[in-house]
Amino acid sequence: MTGKVVDKTFNAGVKVETANVDKREMQYLYREGADYVFMDTSSYDQVHVSPSALGDAVKYLKEGDSAVLPTYNDEILGVDLPAAVELTITETEPGVQGDRVSGARKPATLETGLVVQVPLFVEVGETIKVDTRSGEYLTRA
Hints:
Elements lengths: L21 E11 L2 E6 L5 E4 L1 H4 L11 E7 L2 E2 L7 E9 L12 E6 L4 E5 L7 E5 L5 E4 L1
Antiparallel strand pairs: 1-2, 1-4, 2-3, 4-5, 6-7, 6-9, 7-8, 9-10
């Protein structure tokens, strides 16, 4: 439940209860107060999820995105995002003509509030792919 790994040794013949984790594909709809509202894509039920259950995934979620939410006894354990998501740049410094140093980066704020380092040629309004595991810029979308 906490996400921690616990090292335990059991004697032979000890029965251990199996944890049945159900993974459901859900679509992020909107934010209501502090909670995030997801809709189950198969039953159309809506679920309110606290930001603490989602962790860093809130930096990559925008309305309409799909994600897999693992649940145990109807409690959300976390969120499984795709390896990369497409987000639009809302704020960054303009690139200067001739300023094309190889590997140079500048900070860019995305539509979810996430700040990533992008190449100098990327401008406001462009959509980029961001790696959800590392939070790094991958490419233009």
